[in-house]
Amino acid sequence: MKKPMFTVEQINAAHSKVKSGADFPSYIQEIKALGVTHYEAYVTDGHIDYHGDSHTAKVPAKYDATAIADTANIESFKTELVAHQQGKTDFLTFIKMCATYGIEKWIISMDQMTCTYYDKAGNEILMEQIPQ
């Protein structure tokens, strides 16, 4: 059975329920149920490309472009990421932190339930399992 194609509106509705990093796992389950197989989130302006079986929905930029540091500061990033996942920072604070510490984007894989962060050169900085 072919999954129906998801829309930007469906994704935005699911995302609107996320108030902190602690809400992230349930969001992933919801968009996975819509048929999303993976997505790429870009720190520079917040645009996200959601991919499914031969289908892509592009969510446009959410905020003004921000510069990404040329060199990743992995240890500082990991420390701040944990704080965000515990609900101690909001999303824009998290984005600014990613930019400061050289994170250009992250890719979420629904099949593997991983979130992988990358620097500007495309190097993998950190891969985490998403709690289920």
Write the layout of secondary structure elements.
Elements: H1 8-15, H2 24-34, E1 38-42, E2 48-52, E3 55-59, H3 74-85, H4 91-100, E4 105-109, E5 114-118, E6 124-129
Antiparallel strand pairs: 1-2, 1-4, 2-3, 4-5, 5-6
Helix pairs in contact: 1-2, 3-4
Rg over CA atoms, rounded to whole Å, is 14 Å
- The number of E-state strands comes to 6
- Binned, the helix content reads 25-40%
The rounded distance between the terminal residues' Cα atoms is 25 Å
What count of helical segments does DSSP give? 4
Which ranges are low-confidence, i.e. pLDDT below 50, for 5 or more consecutive residues? none
Residue fraction in strands: 15-25%
- Based on Cα principal axes, name the global outline: globular
Mean pLDDT reading: 91
Order of helices and strands: HHEEEHHEEE
Question: Main β-sheet, in a few words?
Answer: 6 strands, antiparallel
The chain-level structural class is alpha+beta
Enumerate the strands of the largest sheet in spatial order, edge to edge or round the barrel: 3-2-1-4-5-6
